[in-house]
Amino acid sequence: MISSNDSYSDTDDSLSTSSSSLSDTDDEIDLTKWTVTPTVNRDPFQFVGSREVQVKGVQTPIGFWNYIFPRDLVQTIVYETNRYAENVYKNSNPRQQCSCINKWVATNIDEFNAFIALLILQGIIRKPELQMYFSTDELLATSIFNKIMTADRFQILLKMLHFETDHDPDNKLKRSGQLLKFYVLHSKDCTSQEDF
Asked: Is 76 helix (H, G, I), strand (E, B) or coil?
């Protein structure tokens, strides 16, 4: 805040007096001088692997998709998601007629695969808000999203997405523990010691 006693000066004297008034200690850096920090000479990293993930027996994109999201894993996620949504519905207030849970319809493997595909596509096409992916405005439209599912359906699937019934409310990681274990074991098939 400027008071009536403050004044403005065109000279650099005000800067020099203020910088000289600071106490010089070993911890302070003089910001008016350039310094050079020596770097350690390192050997360049030699990449010995390939940029492709090699999975035995997988030749097509859909084959790779099915490898990453095997049917039994997707079936488990669909089952847990539907079960979680049913529990939320049972515990919801019946007076809330406009609640999104009242619109819930059980999901299936095909819809879940489409849902995951849209999530992956959101990582490629970046937009600041979720609603913008489903916009019909010519300037914002990404029509593939509306062709696959409605914004309301996408949001309720996102809200009800569940990997495992959590019996221990204090252990939040348990909810995705089985999924994480599956992918740790599954990813070992894609790599070899030669890649490292």
From this structure: helix
